[in-house]
Amino acid sequence: MKFREHLEDIDFDGAEVVDVARKDDVVIVYFRKGILLPSHPAHSRFSGTLDSYEISFFGLKNEEALKYVGVGESVAYLGKIPVESLEHIIHEDDQFTFGGYVEREPWYEWRFNANEYEVRLGNS
Prior knowledge:
Blueprint: E1 2-3, E2 10-11, E3 16-23, E4 26-32, E5 35-36, E6 53-58, E7 61-70, E8 73-76, E9 85-92, E10 95-102, E11 105-113, E12 116-121
Antiparallel strand pairs: 1-12, 2-5, 3-4, 4-6, 6-12, 7-8, 7-11, 9-10, 10-11
């Protein structure tokens, strides 16, 4: 099942990024865990915790991954998976910000702009 909207209707607190695939200006993020909120159109089909799902981001630009090393102090982070365990994903206009942990260590952020995104739930 594919959705081009409704990112706000997924609770990412505790979700895990298990892989990140890239091709040109497209990045596909593979997730484990997450909860569809009742406002999501697929909530009745996928109630409870999601086992796996993916989000494709198209037209990726201005990407940066940061590891915070002190109050307001960050360094570039170059890991294949910029954030492993999520607290949140913030979507404002065309900017996406993932915030959370890598190897249980806080705080990491992954930010980028994308023209469009598509959520795939289950075996869609």
